[in-house]
Structures are given as structure tokens and as C-alpha cells.
Amino acid sequence: MPDAGPDTGPGARGRRGRRAVSAAVRRPGAVARIPRPPSGPPFLGRHVELDLLLGAQPVPVVHVVGPTGAGKSALLAELARRAPGRVGVGAAAAAPGPLRLTWLRTALDALGADDTARAGPDAATAHGRPLTLEELERVAAALDRRVPVVLAVDDAGDLDEVSAAELAWLGRRCPTLCLALSYRYPSEITDRPVAALGAGVVLRLPPLTEQELADCGIADAAERTGGIPALVAALHRPPAVAASVAMHVARVRSRWMPQPAWEILRVTAALGSLRVGELAALTGRTLAEVLACVDQLVHAHLVTEGPGGHVRHRAGLIREAVAEQVSTAHGMHLRERLARHGR
Questions:
Q1: Of the four listed, 19, 171, 176, 191, which is most buried by Cβ atoms within 10 Å?
Q2: What are the beta bridge partners of residue 64?
């Protein structure tokens, strides 16, 4: 057959990308840079976290922590994109009960493990039992390499006791292995099995900075999103979808807080920046209650503080989404009460 020449036909870029991934998987430890699809939003920031997790000196256990929308899953996906064949990611939340080890099977696939290593998790899942020592050794053989390997577990707080024990064994057995465990808050795992794995480093994912957001291509991204990665990604979607994402982030991040916290979000959505004394008067709560909720809302990156003790929404998208739930009549009543308060 004559030489067909360079692969330049329709779909050539996708075929070259797949070959690059396949080559990296066939040669464990090889790193191939895979270009991001042009239609997808760019990955922003997190340079320190990426450098640490992909560094030449692996940290045995790294915890990746942040509230809903902080970009934990996106960070793990970016790790896999930057180092195919060296990073395997699985989601523990998607693998309860009889599917307990499917997260490990997914991670092993991404790491290019052979059938011998994958057979153990398959058999253990099928029979609802722990991995045997022989099966663990086969998995370890796929992970124990000359170059560092990252085994990442998203929603790691959902790991059961057996899975945590198996991970601990693999971590001790493989000196170049880094276990990356993501979940929302440290308090979430206090009484859960994953806490027994310890932590060499805890990476708390803060909002993205204005400098990092400059690369997203949207001029007012900082004001609209407050640097919350889920909202940054939502900016690239239709407005109705962005509003739904914003409301979800607000609801989930404030779900564990006392009721006055949501009242503060509603009032500041309707009226804008307010002093804590004004918030106390408008919500009918004590100043101590309001201050405690403001502390929690600031910690969750839902509100930010300004001069003179003012409090306002951190993200314009969330403010707009919450304001939609405040009727015109209620908004007028709040403004009248604020005027009577002496503003």
C-alpha cells in the first residue's frame, strides 16, 4: 500500500490526540501534553497545586479541600490531562456498596494498568469482598514505578473502611505513589475512614484571583463570579444555566449554616451592601447571630466585607440568582424598613 502521507484529513487532530494518550499509557510514566479542545473553557490558576502534585518528589498523601464549586474535580481532571499515564482519577461517591471498587478500576484504566492488575478489583467487586493480598500486590505492581504516580480519589469522604485500608497498604507498598484525596471540608471526614490515611499536605482551594481570571477572556469575570471556579465555567454557558449553577452553589455552601445566613444572602441580594447593624435590624436577629453568620458566609466565599463593616455578595451571579427569589413587594418593604432604620 502506498504511503498515505501526513494525517491531515477531517478528524486528524482527534486521531493524533488519541494516539498521544495511547502512547503515554503504553509507556507508563511518559508525559504527553494533550491540547484542550478549543470549545472548552481554559483551566485557570492552581499552578502551586499542580506543581506539587506532579512534582519529582511525591508527597505520600495530599488532601485537596474546598467547598462545592471550588474546582476540586477540575483540578484532578487537569492533572490527568497534563500527565496521562501517570495520573488515575476515580470518584468514590459513584461507587457505593456493590460498586465499591469501580473508582479504582477507572483510575487503573487511566494509568494504563494491564489486565492482571485490573482483574483484582473486578473480581472483588463482583463478589462483594475486599482485595486479597495477591490482588493488592498486582495493583501495586502497576503503581510502583520509577517516576511518581498520582492515584486520585474524588469525593474521598465516601470511602469505606475497607477501601481506606487498601489505600493505606498501597501507599506503604509504593514509594513513588501520591494519594490525592478530595472532599469539601476537613470536618467532613473527622469520623470517616479516610481520616486514618493522614495528610502530608492539605491544599485548600481558594477563589481564583483577578490576575488568574484575566485569562478567561471575560472582562468582568471577577465581579461576576467572585473567583469561584464553578461560576467562572458557568460564564461560558447560557444565562439561565449560569443562574442555576449560581443558585446551586449558594444553596449547597450555606446548607450547613443557621437560617439567618440565608436571610442575610436574601437581604443583601435585594438591597446591596449593608452594615451588620442594618442586617440585624432587617432580619430581626441579634447582632451576635448576624456576626456569626457573616463569619461563616465569608469563610464559604459567599459574601465579602467592605469598609465600615459593610457586607455584600462576593459574586454578582449569586446575587442576581438570589434576588430573583425576592418579590418586588418584599424588596420595597425592606427598603422602607432600611429608611426607617436611619440610612
A1: 171
A2: 182, 203
